[in-house]
Write a structure and sequence with these properties.
Elements: E1 3-10, H1 16-21, H2 29-40, E2 45-50, E3 54-61, H3 65-80, E4 92-95, H4 97-107, H5 119-133, H6 139-158, H7 168-180, E5 187-191, H8 195-206, E6 211-216, H9 219-228, E7 232-235, H10 239-242, E8 248-251, H11 262-271, E9 277-281, E10 298-301, H12 303-312, H13 318-366, H14 375-403, H15 409-420, H16 423-426
Parallel strand pairs: 5-6, 5-8, 6-7, 8-9, 9-10
Antiparallel strand pairs: 1-3, 1-4, 2-3
């Protein structure tokens, strides 16, 4: 019987410093998926959900949960070149129904740093697409991710959990406004041109920011985003030359190393005549050296700081959280019921095949005694025999399906196999 497990860590269980070291490089994801799936053998399934705030590995295979969890821990250690003792204490583990409930909870954005944000849906879709394209999704794990996406859509359609400012970008801009008091006429610098960067830019413009600079490693990408908001596009290498012009800096690149140090801000503050700067680093791993926060008049924040702000806003949406949780529970129950029905499919297929084999044998045995039948008569006799068999099967199949969700399912399935003499096929 297929076991589903998820092992991972997130902003709830681990510090940012560890999450920076536990990232899965996107360009290596196809190879890593294939490598991990090969260890499971035929029929296994793998998916990896990697975001700025979480890394989760999902496995589905006919193995005990403990064995699959051990494989994930070893995999994470090898990929990130870390000893297990450095990260294993920060991991969470879920199996079967708990694993399904966890993914649905994540898809509903109930596990996000900013509850109600929409970005997680796209990230789950990307994880599903990557696993599907790598050919490492089995039937059960594929269905789990499809139902997770359905659950997330239901939550956003049937509740107001996503109403208002519920993204990492909007929380960052809220924080900027609380520090600088008034954003009107300020100059913002967006470093990186991803989704979070664009959301931050849009939010700042709505609040009166007067000028926007967009920096990216590729100037063309910077131009595309800058054009949408009448901003200025700048190549990333020129960042130190323009840093002093910014009142607000939002950085979210995918760079593996720091792109700004404390010394860069020391120079920028001097050039600005000591005017304050608000800096938010929402990249994982971080783009900005920690010591930048020690520079006078530089107000520098990272993802851990945003988490504190986001948690203060949770109580405002508690009713919607309760409604979303109810949807998650129903979707989990629906998936587990489907999974139990999946378990009895081999028995039903074997039972149906056995009955029709007997029907065909008897039809062949009676062919000589029926005399010369026209094609129409032969088809009618064939149809009659099929109807008889299907009617005989109807009640047993219905009861077997009902047994899949009952307390005595194992006993009833065993008796059905014994009664109809199809134990080996049913297994």
């Amino acid at each position: 019987f297929m076991t589903i497990v998820v092992t991972g860590l997130s902003h709830h269980t681990s510090p940012l410093a560890l999450r920076e070291r536990m990232m899965v490089p996107r360009d290596q994801l196809p190879n890593l998926l294939t490598l991990l799936n090969a260890q499971l053998g035929e029929g296994g399934g793998v998916a990896i959900l990697a975001t700025c705030n979480r890394i989760e590995v999902y496995l589905c295979a006919p193995r005990p949960p403990e064995e699959l969890q051990r494989r994930i821990i070893s995999f994470l250690g090898a990929v990130n070149r870390l000893a297990e003792s450095e990260f294993s204490g920060f991991l969470y583990h879920h199996a079967n129904a708990e694993a399904a409930a966890h993914l649905f909870h994540v898809a509903a954005s109930l596990d996000s740093m900013v509850v109600g944000e929409n970005e997680i849906m796209g990230q789950i879709q990307q994880a599903y697409d990557a696993a599907r394209e790598a050919g490492v999704l089995n039937r059960v794990l594929g269905a789990l991710f499809q139902r997770a996406l359905k659950c997330g859509k239901r939550v956003r359609t049937e509740t107001r959990i996503g109403a208002g400012k519920v993204s990492v970008a909007s929380v960052a801009v809220d924080l900027a406004e609380s520090i600088l008091k008034d954003l009107s006429g300020k100059t913002a610098m967006i470093v990186g041109s991803g989704q979070i960067s664009e959301l931050a830019m849009k939010s700042m413009i709505e609040r009166g920011v007067g000028r926007v600079m967009v920096l990216n490693r590729t100037l063309e990408r910077a131009k595309i985003l800058a054009k949408r908001y009448h901003g200025e596009a700048i190549i990333l290498q020129a960042l130190p030359c323009h840093l002093h012009r910014a009142d607000i800096v939002v950085s979210s690149t995918g760079a593996p190393d720091l792109i700004l140090g404390a010394a860069d801000f020391e120079r920028a503050i001097e050039q600005r005549g000591r005017k304050p700067m608000f800096v938010i680093d929402i990249a994982v791993p971080r783009d900005i050296e920690r010591e930048a926060a020690q520079v006078e008049n530089v107000y520098c924040y990272d993802m851990d700081d945003l988490q504190t702000v986001a948690e203060r806003n949770l109580s405002k949406r508690q009713d919607e959280i309760n409604a979303a949780s109810a949807i998650v529970q129903k979707e989990t129950e629906g998936f587990m019921a489907w999974r139990r029905r999946l378990r009895i499919e081999p028995l039903i297929v074997a039972l149906t095949r056995r009955f029709h084999e007997i029907r065909e044998q008897e039809m062949a045995r009676s062919a000589g005694r029926l005399g010369a039948l026209s094609p129409e008569q032969l088809r009618e006799v064939e149809s009659l025999s099929r109807r008889i068999v299907n009617n005989l099967l109807h009640e047993p199949v219905k009861r077997i399906k009902n047994a899949a969700n009952g307390e005595r399912k194992d006993t009833l399935l065993f008796l059905a196999q014994q009664l109809f003499g199809i134990e080996e096929e049913g297994q």
